[in-house]
Write a structure and sequence with these properties.
The structure holds two protein chains of two kinds.
Chain A (H helix, E strand, L loop, with lengths): L13 E12 L2 E12 L3 E5 L6 H8 L7 E6 L2 E2 L4 H10 E4 L11 H11 L5 H14 L15 H14 L4 E5 L7 H16 L3 E5 L3 H7 L2 E6 L2 E6 L1 H6 L4 H10 L3
Parallel strand pairs in A: 3-8, 3-9, 6-7, 7-8
Antiparallel strand pairs in A: 1-2, 1-4, 4-5, 9-10
Helix pairs in contact in A: 3-4, 3-5, 4-5, 5-6
Chain B lengths: L22 H9 L3 H28 L21 H10 L7 H19 L6 H20 L14 H27 L4 H15 L3 H15 L8 H26 L3 H9 L4 H31 L11 H9 L9 H30 L5
Helix pairs in contact in B: 3-6, 3-12, 4-5, 6-7, 6-9, 6-11, 6-12, 7-9, 8-9, 9-11, 10-11, 11-13, 12-13
Classes of the chains: A alpha/beta, B mainly alpha.
Chain lengths: 256, 368
């Protein structure tokens, strides 16, 4: 059922190792026996119908969701109830949300410097310089002193990306980063993400932007009903899908 | 300088709004005379004001007596203000020794910068100012009660409006942090903390303040060891504070529930600890939403301080009652004393209310 044989050797290049992951919401078995290994610099696109568990999967990686069975190793640190481990993992993993989740009472710049100052204990001036660097990278340095409520959706999402980058993460998780955006703003966010991919960042991205998947993905993972149904390189995934459910899904989202 | 005419092809038809829709005329037209119903209401309101205001002015000022040594010298139809020049000090300071009034005054004057440094940012010397605000409660206690170098004054001498201010301000200052902790406790995942918070809030809210004050004054003594005495005023302040905290907790819980889950998650994903998330992300937003409710509780608390009369403390209303039953003034000053008390309360409560509106505007980050 799964293409790639799962290699759980403690290869230093594997930044994420998920083995036999199971999770339930009440009685609902949302993730079923998930195995996934991500090596450093890999770009992975996760797609699938809604309710298939793709968001839950990436939210398990920084423990916004707790799993009940199986093992998740991020950079060699196992996610368990140990708060130290959770903090260690969260400091390596950045996350970009569907609804941006910027802090509305802080300016774009303050959003970016908050964790630097309070978690990393970076001096304020240094934190601001770093934040400006990343705001320039996402091409909105001129909006630094505006509040999220004064920015367009696309600008807000780019601030959110800059905010994640400030913490210098080794892995970035994207949870449907363009789903809450107007069509004309999707491109500016995707462009930012493509540029980011070119820097060699390890990225796991839940998205339905198949064009983006074709451009940057090293692997595309298709999930349905809590299982990884199929995973493959993008050209093979789109041109020769093996599984019927994948074919059906692709025909539905590529129909337009 | 020659500016190019950008109004090509006459496409820009921007012009100022019609004169009768802006300024004073516009305001009167839209607010007082907008349609027949509106106009009728305006006329009726004017008539009612004409009925009320002149007699009120006659009573309070034009027909009033301002001098005299007792109520018998107040012979006109208007108000009797003759007591003011002798008795106003009792209304303000209670039985506090007159040669120490300056200590109360100084405490109140110092309260202004202490409050300012808490309430307003961007003031000069803000660092030193914050330290001053932190030390103010101790400074004020020292000034009022005395001790090292100052003549000691027991709290049973406290009275009048000063008593309302002491109980009200300490209640306001303490009930907010306690209320925040209770609100967080009620939403805690730890069952022990949650059950404790819920029981406390529900018990305190379910009991009238008067009952709590009686408990504080009469019953508490039965449980304390015989040689331990807790100052009467301190007990009252504790009860008023706890009472307000329970209400405050529910107001703040409402604010906390309005914060989307994504805000908590973003904080977690960035590696902030629970207390960091609360302090930096959640509470600033939740408290902002809760401002109207918080201020409501503050004002309620401040007015509740008048209930100390039933346990034998003479706040400003107590002083009014004292004067009303004084044989020299009996039957002459019933309205006048209450009116003076009302004015003092109104000044403080209205100031709190105006500040909160100003604060809400300042914290609004949704628009330019």
């Amino acid at each position: 059922m799964i293409d790639n044989s799962v290699n759980l050797s403690r290869d230093a290049k594997n930044v994420i190792e998920i083995n036999g992951l199971n999770k339930w919401f009440g009685n609902f078995h949302v993730l079923q026996d998930i195995d996934l290994v991500v090596s450093q610099g890999e770009k992975i696109i996760i797609c699938g119908p809604s309710g298939s568990g793709k968001s839950t999967l990436i939210r398990c990686i920084n423990r916004l969701e707790e799993h009940q069975e199986g093992k998740i190793l991020v950079n060699g640190t196992e996610l368990s109830h140990d708060l130290k481990n959770i903090d260690a993992v969260r400091s390596e993993v950045g996350m970009v949300f569907q609804s941006f989740n910027l802090f509305p009472h802080l300016t774009a710049l303050e959003n970016c410097t908050l964790a630097l100052i309070w978690v990393r204990k970076t001096p304020k001036a240094e934190a601001e310089a770093l934040a400006m660097k990343y705001l320039e990278r996402v091409k909105i340095p001129e909006q630094a002193n505006k509040y999220p409520g004064q920015l367009s959706g696309g600008q807000q999402q780019r601030v959110a990306i800059a905010r994640s980058l400030c913490m210098n993460p080794k892995i970035l998780l994207f949870d449907e980063p363009t789903s809450a955006l107007d069509p004309e703003m999707i491109k500016e966010v995707l462009d930012t993400m493509v540029e980011l991919a070119e820097t060699g960042m390890t990225m796991l991205c839940v998205t339905h932007e198949m064009g983006f998947a074709k451009t940057v993905a090293d692997r595309v993972i298709f999930m349905d009903e809590g299982q990884i149904v199929e995973e493959n390189k993008p050209d093979k995934f789109f041109n020769e899908p093996k599984h019927d459910r994948t074919k059906l899904f692709l025909s539905q989202i590529l129909a337009h | 300088m020659d500016t190019p005419d950008l109004n090509y092809a006459g496409s820009n038809k921007s012009r100022p709004p019609p004169a009768n829709t802006v300024g004073i005329i516009g305001w009167i037209r839209s607010n007082l005379l907008g349609g027949p119903v509106n106009t009728c209401l305006t006329l009726i309101s004017c008539y009612i004001l004409w009925l009320i205001v002149p007699p009120l002015l006659d009573w309070t000022i034009f027909n009033a007596d301002f001098t005299g040594d007792s109520g018998r010298e107040c012979t006109t139809e208007g108000a009797c203000w003759a007591w003011l020049d002798q008795r106003i000090y009792q209304f303000l300071y209670g039985f506090y020794p007159p040669d120490s009034y300056w200590r109360v005054n100084l405490a109140i004057i110092l309260l202004l910068p202490a409050l300012a440094y808490v309430l307003f940012d961007k003031l000069p010397f803000s660092r030193q100012g914050r330290w001053f605000s932190l030390t103010y409660p101790f400074l004020a206690t020292f000034l009022l009660i005395g001790g090292i170098g100052l003549e000691g004054i027991t709290t049973d001498k406290f009275g009048g409006f000063m008593l309302n201010l002491v109980a009200g301000i300490s209640g306001i200052v303490l009930s907010l942090p306690i209320g925040i902790l209770l609100a967080l406790g009620r939403r805690s995942k730890l069952p022990a903390i949650r059950i404790l918070s819920v029981s406390f809030i529900e018990f305190i809210r379910g009991v009238p303040l008067i009952t709590l004050l009686f408990v504080a004054v009469i019953i508490l003594q039965l449980f304390l060891p015989p040689n331990v005495t807790l100052d009467q005023l301190v007990r009252v302040m504790i009860m008023i504070t706890l009472f307000a905290s329970a209400y405050m907790a529910e107001v703040i819980r409402g604010g906390l529930q309005a914060i989307p889950n994504g805000q908590y998650e973003a904080g977690k994903a960035m590696g902030l600890s629970y207390w960091q998330s609360m302090r930096l992300i959640i509470l600033p937003q939740a408290l902002k939403i809760s401002i109207p409710g918080i201020v409501n509780t503050f004002i309620g608390l401040f007015k509740d301080t008048t209930l100390v009369i039933i346990i034998g403390l003479f706040d400003i209303l107590g002083q009014a009652r004292v004067l009303q039953t004084n044989p020299d003034w009996m039957g002459k000053v019933d309205y006048e004393t209450f009116l003076i008390a009302a004015i003092f309360f109104f000044i403080v409560c209205f100031s709190i209310s105006r500040y909160s509106i100003n604060l809400e505007k300042r914290l609004d980050t949704d628009h330019d």
